[in-house]
Amino acid sequence: MLLHTTVLGQMSEIRELHAADRRRQAVTSEMLQADHRRFAKMRELRTADCDSTTGTSYCTTGTAGTRWRSCIARAARGGW
Questions:
Q1: CA separation (Å) from 27 to 10, 17, 18, 57?
Q2: In the 8-state DSSP scheme, what is residue 78?
Q3: pTM for the whole structure
Q4: Could you read off the pLDDT of 46-80 as tens digits, one per residue?
Q5: Owning domain of residue 41
Q6: Helix (H, G, I), strand (E, B) or coil at 39
Q7: What's the structural domain count of the chain?
Q8: Helix, strand or coil for residue 34?
Q9: Residues 53, 59: contact at Cβ < 8 Å?
Q10: For residue range 22-40, what is the model confidence (pLDDT) as tens digits?
Q11: Rounded Cα gap, residues 57 and 71, in angstroms
Q12: Distance (Å, rounded) from C-alpha 59 to C-alpha 52?
């Protein structure tokens, strides 16, 4: 009977740990989605800033600003 009680207690603990893990996964997923939305908004604002800027300002494109281009070049092509 002692072994049966121990196994039942461990099964209960395992279920609690699984539930806690699912909650952590849900929170992590929500945080990643929020991070993605913020990144998309920053990219949108950066693009809008490039479109509204004149003079010699530069705008980033691509991932983490790995490529650069001049807003002047875009204006010369009639991009505005």
A1: 26, 15, 14, 39
A2: T
A3: 0.52
A4: 887 766 654 445 555 555 544 444 455 555 555 54
A5: 2-76
A6: helix
A7: 1
A8: helix
A9: yes
A10: 999 999 999 999 999 999 9
A11: 6
A12: 11
In angstroms, rounded to a whole number, what is the distance separating the alpha carbons of residues 5 and 23? 27
CA dihedral over 67, 70, 71, 74, signed as positive or negative: negative
Residue carrying the six token digits 């494109």: 61
Burial 16-39 (b: 16+ CB within 10 A, else e): eeeeeeeeeeeeeeeeeeeeeeee
- What's 57's DSSP letter? -
**Tokens encoding 63:** 């991932």
Q: Which two tokens stand for residue 45?
A: 């604002």
Task: State both tokens at 5.
Answer: 């009680």
DSSP 74: H
Q: Retrieve residue 64's tokens.
A: 């983490």
